[in-house]
Amino acid sequence: MTGSARRQLLVLATISALALGPTACATASEERVSIGLVVPTSGVYASIGTDMSRGFDLYLEQHDGKLGGRLIDVVEADEGDRVETGLAAVRRLIEDEEVHAVVGLVGSETALAAKDVAKNSETPLIVTGAGADDLADGSDYLWRTSSTNAGVGSALGKAVAQGTDRGSAYVIGSDDATGHEFSDSFMISLEASGSNVAGQSYTAAGETEEWSGLFDKVKESGADAIFAAYAGKEAEAFVKQYRESGLARSTRLYGPGFLTEGDVLSALGGAASGVRTALHYSDAMDSLMNDAFVKDYRKAYDSTPTVYSVQAYDAAAALDKALGLSDDVDRNEIADSLGSVGTIVSPRGNWSFDPNHNPEQPYFLRVVKGTPDGPRNVVLREIASAGS
After folding, report:
1. Distance in angstroms (rounded) separating the CA atoms of residues 33 and 385
2. pLDDT, tens digit (0-9, with 9 covering 90-100), for 343-363
3. Which residues contact 22 (CB under 8 A, 6 or more apart)?
4. Residues 324, 152: Cα–Cα separation, whole Å
């Protein structure tokens, strides 16, 4: 059943309650909770938005459209790919639709802008995408089910130091806050682990199409690894040109998991073979819960889940526990209850919120390998366990 079909059934349930009389109608009304889902349905991140919507909807479908025993109305809004669009969507859901909580947000700048809106309106905001390091700060109204940029970068720094001959890495990334957070945390961790940075270069975010000059610098530096912080179309183009440059024969490529995640890996196919990344999830993780999750997701959507799907799925799981602890359907009580949800049992592995309300979770080193199901990010080992 699709998310829209499920929501149609919820409307029919309300009509049936009305037919039963005022007492039944009042009970149904008391149990309903409105959740705002703000993800990109247009723009360059639309595929990520699709994955998040599917992850959230799948959890609801598995729980009969309820969280904490209460029927859920999902009110969706398009984040787009601009701060103005995403912020307007959050404001509309909180102020006009009067939702009880907001879930979603891919863009870090959008999430940072929405932070004050959530706080000022005392509305719980559960971020399922943005990794900006200073987003979650322990506020009752700010929570995150994804990861921090520093968490991913730091975990990978240790792995590169341990997994290469000399641990010498050349750093390349987008010249924006996200690119620098990934790169800075990686370099600090790499050097703390006894290795060195052979050089670093940054490219105009969202505009770069050619990296051949930088690949020449990598060769000149003598680095035995490249760290690349890109996502989406830039990641796709970078990995393709890395493969075409011939560097893959001598210089291993590492990066945050978004370098080979979701649609990027589908587009790259075999060109991504051997690329190593760090992330807190892979659809190829070997566990009973993940096996069941992947099976259910493929059955529902004829697609393979991504980290974005799991992060939204886990937001629903956190709300499920929080609403189960809440006596009333109230923004402040939901926010307070989120602080008591404890361990979230997830396809990524069990995790919980740390004091800043980021996930305290393991990070894994993954490598792209060919499988009967096509190229997948196969987990090599756990490399770190961290929150903020």
Report:
1. 34
2. 999 999 999 999 999 999 999
3. none
4. 32
Is the distance from CB of 167 to CB of 196 less than 8 angstroms? yes
Note the pLDDT of residue 3: 47
Q: What distance lies between CA 55 and its chain's CA centroid? A: 11
**pLDDT at residue 30, as a whole number:** 56
Strand-pairing partners, residue 384, are: 363
SS (H, E, C) 321-372: HHHHHCCCCCHHHHHHHHCCCCCECCCCCCEEECCCCCEEEEEEEEEEEEEC
Pick left, alpha or beta for residue 173 (phi over 0 → left; psi -120 to 50 → alpha; otherwise beta). beta
Other C-beta atoms lying within 10 Å of the C-beta of residue 237: 18
Q: How far apart are CA 46 and CA 28, in angstroms?
A: 34
Confidence (pLDDT) at 241: 97
Q: What is the pLDDT of residue 166?
A: 75
The per-residue DSSP string of 85-153 comes to: HHHHHHHIIIIIS--SEEEE---HHHHHHHHHHHHHHT--EEESS---TTS--S-TTEEESS--HHHHH
In 3D space, the residue among 130, 127, 151 whose CA is nearest the CA of residue 141 turns out to be 127
For CA atoms 285, 266, 127, 321, give the dihedral sign. Answer: negative
Which residue in 117, 149, 126 sits closest to 36, CA to CA?
126
The SS3 call for residue 302 is coil
Q: Would you say 101 and 70 are in contact if contact means Cβ atoms under 8 Å apart?
A: no
The encoded tokens of residue 364 equal 């894994």
Instruction: Return the number of other C-beta atoms located less than 10 Å from residue 244's C-beta.
Output: 12
Enter the tokens of residue 184. Answer: 């800075």
Cα separation, 238 vs 259, in Å, equals 9
Residue 305 vs residues 46, 66, 255, 319: alpha-carbon distances, Å: 15, 22, 20, 20
262 Cβ neighbours under 8 A, 6+ residues apart: 47, 48, 51, 306, 307, 308
> End-to-end CA distance of the chain, in Å?
36
Would you say 358 and 351 are in contact if contact means Cβ atoms under 8 Å apart?
no
Task: Give the chain's residues under pLDDT 50.
Answer: 1-29, 387-388
pLDDT at 17: 39
Distance CA 315, CA 66 (A): 14
CA distance 183 to 174: 9
